[in-house]
């Protein structure tokens, strides 16, 4: 009879119908406290029996805090296994190479992990930066591109700390030693890597782009990296204008000497490695080929010719685009006329 009672208590579905309930187990809660919360929500029929089985399974020693999703089709045994496995509600947040803090912020805001004002405050808070040894104006560039599973209800500081710690794990001892050889600080490495990340499209070109900037830094030439001109001003997806290049900001490498005060995006490991291991080439200039690749040059004269070729290519591309657009318009007009003629014939036959 006792075994029948246990089976009935644990295997009969909960009286919640088809509803789904989310139960929060607070940080530091004991198993007994968790059972009290479940009983209050009528998700446990016999508290003492549930506590007894929890002790038998070892669940009473440790329970994971967070939100648990309980569906109407579950029975108390399912709830017990949910707690035992620590299956809390989590959000997948994917940070891609080249994401800026603004883009990262929106991904976290979308999942209600943080609001915009709080994110801005934490990301620039001097005490928070000091706690993670970040010698930069903000945590820009210190969040490693990856997919993170963030528990619902996680504190924003803890979510950002998880991402910063991931970067530090990837920025391993070998890379730190290489940075010391080049006499570069962590912030300088990440800043240069972030510029490479925004400029490079083809992986094989990352060390070449890195070499251009290293060569310019050695000769005390301005880096003249286009993405830095619009950092904090507008989206990197927007067109960069001559006005942008002339704008005075602390990050615009057309008007400042050396590297900006901090990264302009989150660099991936390939860009970090490229920043530390530039190609052994004398290039000091590069310009887009308008196909994802770049033309690299040593002298300003070579660069001027490459820019001229790029502009001519752009002009040809624009002419082709205009021609295609005209063809589309002609095709649309022809189809429209054909439809009118077809309707006219139908009306005449009727």
Which class do the helix and strand fractions yield? mainly alpha
Q: How would you state the average pLDDT, rounded?
A: 86
Helicity level: 40-55%
Give the total of beta strands.
6
Order of SSEs = HEHHEHEHHHEHHHHHHHEEH
Provide the gyration radius in Å: 30 Å
How would you describe the shape?
extended
Kindly give the count of domains: 4
Major sheet characteristics: 2 strands, antiparallel
- Strands of the biggest beta sheet: in what spatial order? 1-2
* Proportion of residues in β-strands: 5-15%
Number of helices: 15
Architecture overview:
- The protein is mainly α and 350 residues long.
- It folds into 4 domains: 83 residues, Endolytic murein transglycosylase (Dna Ligase, domain 1), CATH 3.30.1490.480; 81 residues, no CATH class; 126 residues, no CATH class; 43 residues.
- The protein is built from 15 helices and 6 strands.
- The strands form 3 sheets. The protein has a two-stranded antiparallel ribbon. The chain has a two-stranded antiparallel ribbon with strand order 3-4. A two-stranded antiparallel ribbon has the order 5-6.
- Helix 2 runs antiparallel to helix 3 and helix 10 packs across helix 14.
Write the layout of secondary structure elements.
Elements: H1 2-11, E1 21-25, H2 31-40, H3 47-56, E2 66-70, H4 76-84, E3 90-94, H5 101-110, H6 116-124, H7 126-131, E4 147-151, H8 156-170, H9 173-181, H10 186-199, H11 206-218, H12 226-229, H13 242-246, H14 269-276, E5 285-288, E6 294-297, H15 300-349
Helix pairs in contact: 2-3, 10-11, 10-14, 11-14
